[in-house]
Amino acid sequence: MRTYQAIDSRGDVLDAYLKKMCEWPQQWCYEDSDLEYGLAAIEVFIPFMRWLVDQGYARTTLRRHCDNLCVLGNEVIQRRRQDCSLRNFSARNELLNLLDVDGGPLLYRPSLDDVDQRSFDATCRKLNAFMTRTIAPCRREVNMITKDETDVAVAEK
């Protein structure tokens, strides 16, 4: 009986996070192209959140990782707006570029302290490990493929 309750509870928790995550692209959006890019980032975040829930983490830990993913998505959109050359990269490849075994990008926000940055880095390390394990054989072998190159490769198949 407890097993079924645990499974139902995990499903409810995941549904709540997925619902929350679907709202993020609108929050990050500065212009129309940001919305599409934000949705592509969410496509990377959703399997990661499913994996975290399946690992049996506590709700507070899941909430922290979810909040950090929101910050990461916002950071990716802001960097894309500041550096036009990043507009050629897919969201997945830009995330792989930003993340590594040490964590994520350094956040420059007055309201964040060292504890927040460490929490953010922990989420980024987990996401990096998840992405490199499930998407690419090794991060060092992943070339920064532009969105246009990916579209051409898909069209050629």
Describe the structure.
- With 157 residues, this protein is an all-alpha fold.
- The chain has one domain (2-156).
- It has helices spanning 2-28, 32-54, 59-82, 91-98, 114-134, 147-156.
- The radius of gyration is 16 Å and the shape is globular.
- It starts with a helix and ends with a helix.
User: How much is the average pLDDT?
Assistant: 82
Question: How would the global form be characterised?
Answer: globular
Number of domains: 1
* Percentage of residues in DSSP E strands: under 5%
Order of secondary-structure elements: HHHHHH
Low-confidence stretches: 1-8, 136-157
> What kind of sheet is the major sheet?
none
- The count of β-strands is 0
Radius of gyration, in angstroms, nearest whole number: 16 Å
**Total number of helices:** 6
Report how far apart the termini are.
48 Å
Task: Give a short summary of the structure.
The chain has 157 residues and is mainly alpha-helical. The protein has helices at 2-28, 32-54, 59-82, 91-98, 114-134, 147-156.
Name a few traits of the molecule.
globular, 157 residues, mainly alpha, 6 helices
Topology:
Elements: H1 2-28, H2 32-54, H3 59-82, H4 91-98, H5 114-134, H6 147-156
